[in-house]
Amino acid sequence: MESESTTSSAQVNGNLAQTVADLSKHMLELDEDDDLEVFSKDALINQYKLEEQDIKDVFITVDCPENHVTSIETFVTYRVITKTTRSEFDSSEYEVRRRYQDFLWLKGKLEEAHPTLIINPLPEKFVMKGMMERFNDGFIETRRKALHKFVNRIADHPILSFNEDFKVFLTAQAWELASHKKQGPGLLSRMGETVRAVAASVRGVQNRPEEFTAMNDYVETFGQKMGMLDKIAQRIVKEQKEYLEGMKECGPVYTLWSGSEDQLVEPLKAIAGCIDNCCKVTEEQVAGLSENQVPILHEYVLCAETLKAVLRRRDNIQAEYESKVDALANKKADKENLKHTDLSFVFGGFLGKNTEEAKQQKEQRLDCEMKELKEEIGRLEDKVECANNTLKVDWERWKRNMQSDVKSAFVDMADTNMNYYKKCLAIWESFLTSQKTDVHLEKDTDS
Q1: Distances from the Cα of 330 to the Cαs of 160, 336, 365, in angstroms?
Q2: Which end of the chain has fewer CB atoms within 10 angstroms, the N or the C?
Q3: What gap in Å lies between CA 346 and CA 343, rounded to an integer?
């Protein structure tokens, strides 16, 4: 059983090493751009804040989960403690309780306000098949850690941390937050935004800059590699758990066997004790992998989908700009054709209307529409440029954080495995030493 487990683990680790090697090839691409602009009147202020990103002045803790049972639903809330030295906060410390839906609302508001900034994903709302129960203590603790990381990533961001909705999330009591949520755009406004986004995505982008095409390709490869690593890591944990269950069944066998072998009582009991100690060490290893390494890899699987959504939003902004440019070109063509069009045969001409007057009215209408389109194009051109610069800078920031997180996960995984094997080796070496000592004592007694 142990040799089969070793062979299987070797194959899995081989796959893991190959996947890590492939992933590392794709981690250092695309040049860094230090410009940053955002879609707001505070662009210059936000750019300055980005340069001051080393100063941390907001500290957030998510802890103390509590179950709530009502006649309608069952849910969990988490305590969110904020400590800050920022002048825009009325106090230096806040304590509120938030449920998962509140974190989800915050993420939506941040994406709405900053469509091309990369906001790290929340933990999944529903548990994957084969994982933990929804209100299991282990699942709640895993989600608490993920929510803690989510809000602290926002707090560390040089732009997102100054968002007004984020401040409300950290400071408002439950009833105040509920009231603030109702102040958002109405249903018709949200539907209009959705329709425009769908129309832009259907139309597509005509001339996407090469750097964003490269980003799309990178994200596709990154998502595939992280998905593979996530599956391998979960398979390692699953096999280690199976190995642990096998050892737990094996230990009592040696204990029972010692009852029927007078000459082997001590060695058999010693083996049973070693197996029991190895079980404890294996439990620690599995817990370390499940609680620390696997969640990081799975977070970046979800992050790949977040990146795709950000790139789609950037494309939608450009597609809206291109549609207005096309509309202006059509209006110019209509005006040019109007000069060579005989309006005497149109319906109005048969009613006795002055054709020259009708032509002038149509020209005036086209000029008015073209003027509006030019103003809209100017605004959208600035929006596209801001979107591009914002995404390029945040992309580099995200990549640095990602590379640090993934490297840390792999180093921690290696350290966990090394400590595990060292402890197991020490357990069995102590057994061998004790048996050699007993053999020498027996020889001395016989002589």
Answers
A1: 40, 10, 14
A2: C
A3: 5
Q: Long-range contact list for 74-77, CB < 8 A, 24+ apart?
A: 74/135, 75/99, 75/100, 75/101, 76/100, 76/135, 76/140, 76/143
User: What backbone phi and psi angles, to 5 degrees, belong to 160?
Assistant: -60, -30
DSSP 209-249: -HHHHHHHHHHHHHHHHHHHHHHHHHHHHHHHHHHHHHHHH
Question: By CB neighbour count within 10 A (0-12 exposed, 13-18 middle, 19+ buried), where does 414 fall?
Answer: exposed
**For the chain, give me the number of helices (H) and strands (E)?**
12, 3
The Cα 214–Cα 220 span in angstroms is 10
Q: Where are the alpha helices (DSSP H) in 157-209?
A: 164-171, 174-181, 187-203
Non-local CB neighbours of 168 within 8 Å, separated by 6+ positions = 176, 177, 180
Residue 210 CA to residue 63 CA, distance in Å, equals 44
Q: Is the pTM of this model over 0.85?
A: no
Question: Which residue do the tokens 């707001």 mark?
Answer: 40
70 by DSSP, 3-state: which?
A: coil
Highest average pLDDT, of 68-72, 198-202, 224-228, comes from: 224-228
Query: Helices 355-446 and 210-258 meet at what angle, rounded to 10?
Result: 30
41-71 confidence digits (pLDDT tens): 344 334 444 444 457 889 999 999 999 888 8
How many Cα atoms sit within 13 Å of 360 on the Cβ side?
5
* The residue type at 257: W
From the list 426, 419, 407, the residue with the least C-alpha distance to 285 is 419
In angstroms, the Cα distances linking 114 to 2, 10, 67, 180, 391 are: 53, 45, 33, 19, 10
